[in-house]
Every structure is written in C-alpha cells, then in structure tokens.
Amino acid sequence: QTYEGSYPHSLVKEIIPFIEKNYRVIANKDNRAIAGLSMGGGHTMTATNNNPGVFGWIGVFSSGPRQADPNVEKQLAALAKSGVKLYWIGAGSTDTANAGAKNLYKLTQDLKFNSTYKEIPGAHYWFIWRDFLCDFGSKLFK
C-alpha cells in the first residue's frame, strides 16, 4: 500500500504534476512510462497498482510478489482494465527475486495484460538490469 509521503505517492501526486506544469510533455498514460529495479521495482508496482490509468508502460526488473495476495491481485485487475500498453518483467536466472518476478508474470498473464518476461543468466546485479533497460526502453511508445 502507498502512504502519504512515500516515494510512490510523491511520484504520482507531486512529481508528475510538477513536470506537467513546468515542461512541455504529453500528459496522459500512453505517454508515461515507469520502471524500477529491485526495491525500485517494488516502488513501481506500488505506484502503478495504486494509480491505475497513470502509466501506460511499466517495467519491473528483479522484483515481484513472492506469494499471491488478494489485494495485489485486485489492484492488478484494476490496472489491467486501465489499458496498460506493456507490462515488462525481468529477472536473472539466479536472482534472489526470480520467483517473485515469475509470479508477477503469471499474474499479469492471467489478467490478460500485454506482458513479457525475460530471464537471462545472472544474479541480482547491474549487468542484468542494464540489459533489461535496453530491452524495455526499445519497446516504449510504439
């Protein structure tokens, strides 16, 4: 859950409105992407699960729920209905977050998201995340 003053809350309620007020951007979900790795992947899930319709492109690197949670499933169902363009998930083959990422992918597939899962050799470290960023980034806004 998000809470007042948390990063996911501040991102959606403060940072995005500031950017949209002060910069020339296309202010709609189809033109907003968010991605995070490890704990940032958890923040990405919290921001998107609690704010369906804000982001059209979601990338979760080396993160995901280890067990199905009815609240998370309900939030993901609402997010699916909001029209996410792509839900991109990745983890390393020996990553400590591999099971959670696979579980998240299964949940997104069950809910009929346009989702993808990528697993490459490696653990919970920058070398895999750099690959994931290139892959996810190449698919944005198309």
Write the topology of this structure.
Blueprint lengths: L6 H16 L10 E5 L1 H11 L7 E5 L8 H12 L4 E7 L5 H13 L4 E6 L5 H14 L3
Parallel strand pairs: 1-2, 2-3, 3-4
Helix pairs in contact: 1-2
Description:
The chain is α/β, with parallel strands linked by helices and about 140 residues long. Helices cover about 45% and strands about 15% of the residues. The protein contains five helices and four strands; from the N terminus they run H-E-H-E-H-E-H-E-H. It has helices at about 5-20, 40-50, 70-80, 100-110, 125-140; strands at about 35, 55-60, 85-90, 115-120. The protein has a four-stranded parallel beta sheet with strand order 1-2-3-4, with helices on both faces. Strand 2 (about 55-60), helix 3 (about 70-80) and strand 3 (about 85-90) form a beta-alpha-beta unit. The chain is globular. The chain starts with 6 loop residues before the first helix and ends with a helix. The relative contact order is 0.15. The model has no long low-confidence stretch (mean pLDDT about 95).
